[in-house]
Design goal:
2 domains; Archaeosine Trna-guanine Transglycosylase, Chain: A, domain 4; 10 helices; alpha+beta
Length: 313
């Protein structure tokens, strides 16, 4: 099992800690850098810079990495970007990446973390003994190394002692000591929030509307099959990526997707609005995009239930 220790901006951490954010965007000012150090479910720890004490102060679990325009990152995560408003976010990005000033809505790298925890200051952990001052982004550790194993045990003790996380998060922290098996299966059970749900659904569908194939990200939305207000959750199997107008009609029951992943268009669109030609061309067609990972595709039972309960025949 691997985990990553990332160098963390002090103001970013303090705002998230004050808000007790449970999912966060650890953003990178340039999308060119990328992030491939972890698999979904593996831990990402926060280490403050030297002038703030060089301590490990909290962390979360990696859910995914996406390149997004600032506007979408702000819509998805808001203050969970670690800043009070979009203007501050854009100013901070420009401070790190002067090329970003050439664009009104520059792309940034988004490391999405869930089940985030914060250590009480009395439980902060000193930086690893092998930490180099030249590290500006962070370092990957492998649990097979003695130093990494000791550090992870310290994290578990600190979380338990400071009551910094719910029992489920503590169980996740203890689990890496017992097993090294982490993969995309994490995303089948992770407790995602609204922001992570939107961004990971974009990623899951390759930024393509499942009905039209549209790839213009600002008009793409993550639709819930079972609505949250009806006990639906933010699991990726409860999501479909749709162009905004398709999402509106889907929510009204005027567009449906059956358990065979075929699109259904309600006759009520024509009858009520005397048009709908642009929608009827999709009737009876299979979805144009689906997640590559079959385990993350839309839940067929949820689709079947929705067709029975909500779709307008």
């Amino acid at each position: 099992m691997k985990f990553f220790v990332g160098v963390t901006d002090y103001d970013w951490f303090r705002q998230l800690e004050a808000d007790r954010a449970s999912e966060v965007n650890f953003w990178l000012p340039s999308p060119d850098v990328g992030f491939a150090a972890l698999l979904p479910g593996q831990p990402f720890l926060f280490k403050l810079k030297k002038k703030y004490g060089d301590h490990i102060v909290g962390g979360g679990f990696f859910a995914g990495y996406s390149v997004l325009p600032v506007s979408i990152a702000w819509e998805a995560f808001g203050r969970d970007n670690g800043v009070p408003d979009r203007e501050t976010l854009q100013a901070k990005i420009a401070g790190y990446n002067t090329k970003a000033t050439r664009f009104a809505d520059p792309n940034i790298g988004c490391i999405i973390l869930t089940d985030v925890f914060y250590l009480d200051q009395s439980q902060w952990i000193s930086k690893p003994s092998d930490w180099s001052e030249n590290l500006t982004r962070g370092k990957t550790y492998n649990m097979s190394d003695h130093l990494a194993s000791e550090l992870w045990q310290q994290v578990g003790f600190a979380v338990e002692s400071s009551h910094a996380a719910e029992s489920q998060v503590l169980d996740q922290i203890k689990q890496p000591v017992r097993t090294s098996v982490y993969s995309k299966s994490y995303l089948q059970k992770a407790r995602l929030g609204q922001g992570a749900f939107r961004v990971l659904t974009l990623q899951n569908y390759g930024n393509r509307c499942c009905i039209t194939g549209e790839t213009t990200v600002p008009v793409l939305q993550a639709a819930h099959i079972q609505a949250v207000h009806k006990n639906g959750d933010h699991q990726l199997q409860n999501g479909l990526l749709m162009r905004a107008d398709m999402h509106i009609l889907f929510d009204k029951g005027l567009i449906g997707v059956d358990a065979d992943y075929k699109i259904r268009i309600s006759p009520q669109i024509r009858e009520s609005y005397l048009n709908g030609k642009v929608y009827y061309e999709h009737d009876g067609q299979h979805l144009r995009s689906l997640p590559k990972d079959a385990a993350l595709r839309p839940d067929r039972e949820l689709l079947h239930s929705r067709m029975k309960e909500i779709f307008v025949n």
